[in-house]
Write a structure and sequence with these properties.
single chain, 256 residues, alpha+beta, Beta-Lactamase, Arc Repressor Mutant, subunit A, 6-stranded antiparallel β-sheet, 9 helices
Length: 256
């Protein structure tokens, strides 16, 4: 069953897109959180699922080898629609999911639990969810873990948005006297020409370019961009886009 739209879905989608996170690369910060959540909930699959108009896109996916699914396969959209925590003990007997192709076939998802990832101004962006191949329930402690970690995801998204907005403000002020951090500049100078090109594109758009947009700009595949972004994060010794933007600011590049 296709989920009903959120009562204010247009505004919700505008809020989601303001984070400039869709189609961005993997980040260690999110992957560590989903891996920990999966372990604590004793679940084989854990996702940071952001619900778009026609798809759900995964910022992090532990135990699932895809980046997104069509909205028709989204269980998270039901949680977003009702704007609250959702737990389905057996997807094959629940009317909302019994006809979902992910809940049928030779290896169906039989259990789902999703806690809302909510922006600071109240919009449900998606869920932090766990899935299992057998009907079950979470314990009270596991439900609390899921809800707390969903708040942690929201905090990380908000931090990234704040730094993107700060980077934009630096770009809009001519000759801003930003003190250059020598260590940050040394890390920046260690990048390959292609990596530097990608960082400059990220900086030039204040962190808001997706991997697919960077790929189109450079004429390469988005998977190649993701590979370079992973190398950049390792060389710059950061775990998230938020940290990367902070380092770029410290290099003084945005004030040039």
């Amino acid at each position: 069953m296709l989920a009903k739209l959120h009562p204010e879905n247009y505004q919700r989608l505008e809020a989601l897109r303001s984070f400039a996170v869709l189609d961005s690369g993997r980040e260690k910060t999110y992957d560590e959180l989903t891996r920990l959540t999966a372990d604590l909930c004793d679940a084989p699959v854990c996702l940071v699922s952001l619900v778009e108009e026609d798809r759900q896109w995964f910022k992090s996916a532990i135990g699932l080898g895809v980046e997104q699914t069509p909205i028709e396969q989204s269980i998270c959209s039901h949680a977003v629609s009702q704007d609250e925590y959702l737990e389905i003990e057996d997807t094959q007997v629940d009317a909302r999911t019994s006809d979902n192709s992910l809940c049928m076939g030779s290896k169906p998802f039989r259990f789902y639990a999703g806690a809302i990832i909510r922006s600071f101004d109240g919009w449900p962006l998606g869920t932090l969810c766990v899935l299992d191949y057998k009907p079950r329930q979470l314990t009270g402690i596991q439900r609390q873990v899921l809800k707390v970690h969903a708040k942690n995801v929201a905090q990380q998204l908000e931090l990234t948005r704040e730094l993107i907005n700060r980077a934009k403000s630096y770009k809009n002020i001519e000759r801003l006297p930003i003190p250059v951090d020598p260590e940050a500049k040394q890390k920046f100078d260690s990048l390959t020409p292609r990596e530097t090109e990608i960082v400059k594109l990220v900086a030039g758009h204040s962190g808001s370019l997706s991997s697919k947009e960077i790929a189109r700009e450079l004429g390469i595949s988005h998977r190649t961009v993701d590979h370079h972004r992973a190398n950049i994060m390792a060389k710059m010794k950061v775990d998230s886009i938020a940290e990367l933007i902070s380092i770029i600011i410290k290099t003084g590049y945005l004030s040039r």
